[in-house]
Every structure is written in structure tokens, then in C-alpha cells.
Amino acid sequence: MTIIEALSDPHLFGALPAFHDLTSWRPWLAFLRAVYGLPMDDRDLELFRAHTGRQTPRAGGYPEAACIVGTQSGKSNVAALVGVFEAAQAVMAGRRGLYVPLIAQDLRGAQRALLAYVREAVQASEVLRAEVARETADTLELAGGVSLGVYPCRPAAVRGIRAACVVVDELAFFIATDGRPTDREMLRAVRSRVATTGGKLLILSSPYAQAGALWELHRKHHGREDSPTLVWQATAPEMNPTLPADYLARMEAEDPEAYRSEVLGEFRAGISTLFDPEALEACVAEGVRERAPEDSPRPWYVSFVDAASGSGKDAFTAAVAHLVGERAVLDVVRAWRPPFNPSGVIGEAADLLKRYGLRETTGDRYAPGFVSEGFRAAGITYHASERDRSALYLELLPAVNAGRGRVELLDDAELLRELRGLERRRGTSGRDRVDHRPGAHDDRANAAAGAVVLCLEATRSRPLVIKEALWG
Asked: Hey, what CATH class is 277-471 in?
């Protein structure tokens, strides 16, 4: 039985509500026919040529395929469908001890969502439901010892297994919990899982930046007639014609840049990771999470504050650093997570700064009147920074690349995760912007960068004059 026949069978995947009417799934059916080397009619061939840049499908299908499409296009349904189909095929063929891993982002929510699609695909069919021998939080074990499960995007998670097929969901967004990208390592790991089984590797993802493993797949294989790796690229409305027009119009109006990638399936130009992970690692004082104030001789301390209201998602952060010769040394990064009373947090931050002998601090321009008055009441003079966060990060970059001779960071997992996640975007006015990825945060990173840059600035001016102004 082919995967298309299984989709049409009311006792198998046809029992799923999403697949009762396959009319709107025509583009996905053409994609699956190409992947599995199934007969294609003229309409299928038209879709194949439009979305792959190729003229003729490869006889016998493709051992590896990537479908690069916008959000809400049906990717998770198809990922679960292929995974369950391949697991059932392995059971029918008596291929004991094989796995069908579905790789999701390193977030429990993403993994649970994908597993929910898998469970729905199995439970909707009496035939497939009868094959379930055991079920755990992450895995369905089918008769014959074939396991179907959802795994995080960490190479170690799939080590030691042999796979009948691997399905990778949202490759462009594979970031480990410590902020390191895992896309390239993950691809290497899963390719080795199917190397001896002849299984397929299927990648379903929305695009992101013109960098990383998904972009490299597109660059090397899209439109390449002779490539054994199929790359299919399409907009979300092309793959899912049921998307409401008002939803699409609203997305385009609210965020045109995100619309181009998340709906039109285009890679975003001019985005790159700001810091090299190895360069960051070289600046870390291993095992040092915080430095207590020094009394004799007292260093020249500076601080930077990234304020927040306490009612949103941002943390209120304060960082302190000092100079050792030409090197900026980060002493402490303290964060207060919301919800909190901003007046109370300002008082706690002021107490922290006073421990380091500080009577002044610098910070961002968030609610300048309220923040500066709050610090003034706590005995600290607050100066609004002349640099925005992009400027701070761009000034920090060469110091990080120079290593421990210019900057020494703390062994703070949250801080390092935020720094690793910073992205540099090419600005339209010629000035680059630096910010965190969508959905991420950079509160600790911003405060730390501010404190370090203030130290480095002193090495270029007259530290004794500045010290005298601060200490009297």
C-alpha cells in the first residue's frame, strides 16, 4: 500500500478529520508522490516543476527531501502522517528493533504538539490502534518492536538507534536550551541513523535566515535536476488553500518581514548570528558565576541597567563590571523576573550597586522619568545611555573576538544563552541592527554589554578623570 492509498483509506489515515476531504491537500499529495516515486498526472507535474525548479521527478523517489513552506500550511499533519506510515510499513515488513524518530525543537511544548498529531493519526484508525503495544510520554511502541517517538533536537537523543525513517520538524529553528544552534549537528546525526537501513529523511520547515542547514540544503539542491535530495519550496496559501484571506492580510500588514518568511516561505536576507559560540566560550571565566566587591585596592566599577515594568515578559536587570588593565571584567548580572513591583526592584538594584561602591549608573531609556526618579530616591544618579542596544552589542563584538585579553565574562548559563541567540540584521540605512530572535529575550545580555562597553570606553579616554568624577 502506498502512502496516497493509505490517505484515501477510511480505515487508515482517511479516518482523520483533516483528511476526510483531500481536495485542499492536492499540493501535499504531489509532494508525497514525488518523494515516494509514485505516478504523477499533469497537474502533479505542474506543481512539481513550480515548487522544485526541476522538470522531471526522480524515478524511485528521493532518499532525502526538504519541504520549505510557510506556517499554518499543514506541516505537522504531514510529519505525523509520514512517521506513522513508515512505522506501520516497518511492522508489516517484520523489521524488528527499528525506530521512526520525529525530531522537534528543543522545547517540550513543540514536542508535545507534534506527538499529539502522531497519537491522533494512530488512534483514528482501528487498524493502527490495534498495533500499539505500549505507550509512554514520548513514544508509541508498535507490534514487532518498532518504536515511533518524538525526540528533541539534540544529537545525543538519537545516538545508538537505527531508523526506518526520520522526520525533522522546523529545522531552521533548532536551538538547544543553552542557545547553541543544533541544525547542522542534528542533520549529521539523523543521516547516520538511516545510513544502513535505506530509510528516508524528510525535513519539513518554515525558512528563517540565509544561513544554517536549511539554507544550505536550499542553496545546494533546489532546482538541481541531478540531485538525490529534493527541495520543495512554496507559500503557505499554495500548500493550504483554506487559509483565510483576512488572516493573511493582517499578517502582512502587521509584520511585512515576518510575512515574507512565515507565509511566503522566503529566507530572510541579511540575518546572521552576532557572536561566534567558540569566541564567546573563550571569554568565559569557567566556574565564576559572580564576583564579590573588592575592598583593597578597590577597582573602578561601572554599571548598566536594563529596566522593565514588571507587568510584561521582560526582566529588570543590572550588571556591574570593572577594569583590570585593558580588560573589562564582568562582576555580576542580576535579573528580577516579572511580575514584580518596579519601585521595589529599583530599590534592590540600588542596594546591589551600592555594594560595589557605586553612586551612579547608566541604563536604557525605558520610562526615563520613573526609573531615574526611583534611583534618585534610592541614592543613585541614573544616566540615560547614549547608545541603544544594537550599538552596545556591536561595540562588544570586537572585544569578544579578541578574547580574554579584552573581556572576561561570567559563567552564567542564562547570560550566555542570550548572547548566543543575538542576531545581526543588515539595516536599510547602512547601520546594522542587533536583536534577539523572535520569542527570545536579551535582558541579561543588554545589561552585561552595557557594563562591559562602559569599561572599554574608559580605556580609550582618561580613566583617572572618570574615576575621580565617580569617587570624588
From this structure: alpha beta
What is d(CA 294, CA 283) in angstroms, rounded to the nearest whole number?
21
Assess whether the previous peptide bond of 228 is cis (omega < 30° from 0).
no
Question: pLDDT digit string (tens) for 76-85?
Answer: 899 999 999 9
Q: Are the C-beta atoms of 364 and 384 separated by less than 8 Å?
A: yes
Q: Tell me whether strands 146-152 and 360-363 are parallel, antiparallel or unpaired.
A: unpaired
Kindly report the number of other CB atoms within 10 A of residue 110's CB atom. 18
Task: Kindly indicate whether the domain formed by 3-269 is annotated with CATH number 3.40.50.1580.
Answer: no
Task: Return the domain boundaries, the chain.
Answer: 3-269, 277-471
Q: How many angstroms separate the CA atoms of 290 and 333, rounded?
A: 8
Cβ-contact 115, 76 below 8 angstroms? no
- The C-alpha torsion from 338 through 344 and 346 to 348, rounded to 10°, is -100
Identical fold, 3-269 and 277-471: no
Q: Crossing angle, helix 368-377 and helix 342-355, to 10 degrees?
A: 50
Strand partners, 330: 321
Type and span of the H or E element at 32: helix 26-36
Mind listing the pLDDT tens digit for each residue in 52-61? 999 999 999 9
- Specify whether the CB–CB gap between 55 and 75 falls below 8 A: no
Copy the grid coordinates of residue 143: 507490534
